[in-house]
Design a protein that fits this description.
The chain is an alpha/beta fold. The protein has 28 helices and 20 strands.
């Protein structure tokens, strides 16, 4: 490539899908509810894509991506494009005529959400983010077939606007390694063995894109930033040797993000792909010396991810320019980009009206990150003087944040500095605690409970909106919350659950609710980010030192406990999840922030115990997802993460039972850390994986109580009593009955009462029936 003639350009890997007012969420849910047609949904989606294409072009991007949009999930889209559709999902759409939009969407959403007849694909976390992807199912008999309709359609839509886009596809190695064996596959089957069968399908798709004018295609290979064995690296080399040998194809840009490529970097550099897209932020900054060590990639294009695509702070543009100046000497062509897709950040700070304008200057959402990317590209191509005003504003914003009183609290830091090892350990061993807790709680074998939240009803949403707009006052809102709690408690008593919850009607989100009551946090009004499907969250912004000015949950706990003689759980979100599901500060180590949050939550645990709570659940669903992608970083992370949990929970009496909950991640490789939490009971997602975690707990000889989930709450299906019984029997094959709890996979917030009532009744019936078959009782 000729370095002297190329002008650095700006691009992005992808952009938020939902629309400024979450139009996509509403359109999809209207279709599910039968309020709109397939054609109406697809028209809305096309309109959203057109607006994003035009917005990115108007912002000054030199190259715009396509095929990053999705109705539900981009990994699901990849499975569809490759023909990896389980037969049970094809059968679920028999009522629709094949080839019609109705049939396509029926099969697609059956894979995503399941039907009464067909379980959905398993769901898990996308690397160390809070985005969930659907896990493709593959087996020895999987017959791939190319269906490039979606990327071709989006390419054509952009061409109507005069734009030639760069289609983004999940790469073949990542697709196979992110997949799992189908339920009927042999126990030793590995999806990577299908590579030779898959590559011709990718070649066919690349040919189709080339035929209609695609100049570049991006193949995402994020699995290569993880520690991979020689067999995977060899397969990668073979895959890109075969794909680049085709005579009819676009130029290939292989992209990675979230960490450094390690051994995969020199391997990809030796292939004939025309470009690499690398992350140079956070731990991925190690890509820079690694690139220099191999002599750069003088014959390739480099898309340099120098803007953090996962956090919301303004970029240090001067530092990014320094990085780019070095990279100019290491590649034949350098273009500027965020580190990854902007899917992981909200859309636009310009819509926030409740935040201090001074604070808004510190923040960059997706739209602002595009502007930063364009500014850096202009500085490289036309000189720094052309963007002098933007650089000056950037320096001023960063200086304002550093000097702000919001970021520093002397008392918080002094308290954190006094924490000792005694503060992070319960003095009694688990067997002694378990005996004391059973004497206090007197629970039956296979005790039943739920994870915490109950359905958010229309009346509750209306009341919350009314309070926000001033239509109702705090007294009326409080009355509505109390009514919801009363209904939840009454239902649980009638259904026969053993340990109850108050249902969390006062909580808009399990992190945001607490963030709004802690110092150091900021809340947004429009900062929505996709978690999965049509589930969007508004991660709070952790900007400063954290403390708890007043109790946060005890009032609602007391109200619920006074309605029943059965134990009611106090419900909290753990310190690691409070960090993982927020946009965290980047000006101090995460371990320091986690300790501050843990101390604030420790105070809340103490208040709940004083209010009479015999069971307190501190959820840590993010413990696994926040695990660094490289193994050499695991010990340090797990040490401070588990310490933060124990600091939160270790101040209670022996007869106070501590629960925790985790969901939708692979837990097998962190079971020693889960043990190190020293929780009395842990509940885990297990339904879609058919109790795989129970096998892992048994293999690790997990010594405390566990509740592997028996009701998949991320799908509308209502499991029958026999289905729940089968799952419990599978769990009992691995876990002792005196330490097995019965519960759903996760909270019930996203489900409807019409689903929740029968599902929980079946859960209780299954547990009661199995109790009669146990040899003994506690």
């Amino acid at each position: 490539m000729n370095r002297t003639t190329h002008r650095p350009s700006a691009t992005v890997h992808g952009y938020p899908r939902q629309g400024p007012d979450r139009e996509l969420k509403r359109a999809v849910e209207d279709f599910w509810a039968g309020r709109s047609s397939a054609d109406q949904l697809l028209t809305t989606a096309a309109d959203l894509r057109r607006k994003v294409f035009q917005q990115l072009a108007d912002a000054g991007l030199g190259e715009i991506p396509s095929n990053h949009f999705s109705l539900y999930d981009h990994v699901l889209d990849a499975a569809w494009m490759l023909g990896a559709i389980p037969p049970r999902h094809l059968a679920a759409a028999q009522d629709a005529r094949p080839g019609t939009p109705e049939h396509t969407l029926a099969v697609y959403f059956a894979m995503a959400r399941g039907t009464e007849q067909a379980e959905p694909l398993e769901m898990t976390k996308w690397f160390d983010t809070n985005y969930h992807y659907l896990v493709p199912e593959l087996g020895p008999d999987t017959a791939f077939r190319a269906d490039p309709g979606k990327p071709l359609t989006e390419l054509a839509e952009a061409k109507l606007l005069g734009l030639t886009t760069r289609p983004v596809l999940l790469g073949p190695i990542s697709f196979l390694l992110l997949a799992k064996p189908a339920p009927d596959a042999p126990a030793d089957f590995q999806p990577l063995t299908l590579l030779d069968r898959l590559l011709p399908v990718y070649a066919e798709i690349l040919d189709a894109l080339h035929t209609v004018g695609a100049e570049w295609v991006q193949l995402d290979e994020p699995v290569l930033v993880q520690d991979q064995p020689p067999a995977v690296l060899s397969a990668t080399a073979r895959a890109y040797r075969d794909l680049t040998s085709a005579t009819r194809r676009p130029k290939l840009l292989v992209a990675s993000y979230f960490d450094a490529l390690g051994d995969a970097l020199p391997l990809l550099a030796r292939t004939r792909v025309e470009g690499l897209a690398l992350d140079f932020t956070g731990p991925a900054a190690a890509n820079l010396p690694a690139l220099a060590a191999i002599g750069g990639i003088p014959d390739k294009r480099l898309v340099a991810g120098v803007i953090d695509g996962r956090n919301i702070w303004t970029t240090d543009l001067e530092q990014s320019l320094a990085t780019l100046a070095t990279l100019l000497g290491l590649a034949g062509q350098v273009d500027v980009a965020p580190s990854c897709s902007l899917l992981h950040v909200p859309l636009d700070t310009g819509r926030e009206r409740d935040l201090d304008p001074q604070v808004l200057r510190w923040l960059a959402f997706a739209r602002q990150k595009v502007d930063e990317t364009v500014t850096l590209a202009r500085a490289l191509s036309d000189g720094r003087d052309t963007v002098a005003a933007q650089l000056a504003a950037n320096r001023a914003a960063r200086a304002s944040r550093s000097a702000s009183a919001l970021t520093f609290d002397r008392e918080v830091r002094a308290r954190a500095a006094t924490v000792t090892a005694q503060d992070t350990h319960r003095p009694q061993p688990y067997p002694e605690r378990a005996a004391a807790q059973q004497a206090r709680l007197n629970l039956p074998p296979l005790p039943t409970t739920t994870i915490g939240s109950f359905p958010q009803t229309d009346a509750l949403r209306s009341a919350r909106a009314g309070l926000r707009t001033g239509r109702i006052d705090h007294a009326a809102y409080r009355t509505r919350i109390e009514a919801e709690i009363s209904e939840v408690i009454a239902f649980q008593e009638k259904a026969g659950l053993d340990v109850l919850v108050h249902g969390e009607p006062e909580r808009n989100d399990m992190v945001q609710y607490f963030a709004e009551q802690l110092t150091g946090y900021l809340a947004t009004r429009h900062g929505w980010v996709q978690s999965y499907g049509t589930r969007y969250v508004r991660p709070p912004i952790l900007a400063g030192d954290v403390s708890r000015p007043a109790p946060m949950t005890t009032h609602w706990y007391r109200y619920a406990a006074d309605l029943t003689h059965r134990p009611v759980k106090g419900m909290l979100t753990g310190p690691v999840t409070m960090l993982a599901w927020s946009f965290v500060r980047d000006d101090q180590p995460l371990a320091d922030t986690a300790r501050q949050v843990a101390l604030a939550l420790r105070d809340e645990v103490a208040d709940l115990e004083a209010a009479g709570a015999a069971v307190i659940q501190v959820d840590e669903p993010a413990l696994r997802e926040t695990l660094p992608l490289r193994r050499d970083a695991h010990p340090d992370y797990l040490a401070w993460a588990t310490e933060a949990f124990r600091l939160t929970t270790s101040g209670v009496r022996a007869d106070t039972q501590i629960h925790t909950h985790m969901c939708y991640a692979e837990f097998g490789d962190i079971l020693p850390a889960i043990d190190d939490l020293d929780a009395d009971v842990i509940s885990l997602e297990a339904t879609r994986s058919r109790m795989a975690v129970a096998t892992e707990l048994a293999a690790a000889r997990y010594p405390r109580a566990a509740g592997p989930g028996v009701y998949d709450i991320h799908a509308p299906r209502v499991p029958g009593t026999s289905e729940v019984t089968d799952l419990l029997r599978a769990a009992l094959d691995h876990l002792p009955a005196d330490r097995l709890w019965v519960n759903p996979d996760c909270g019930l917030k996203t489900r409807h009462w019409a689903e929740v009532r029968p599902a929980l009744e079946h859960l209780v019936t299954a547990a009661r029936d199995l109790r009669t078959t146990l040899d003994g009782r506690r």
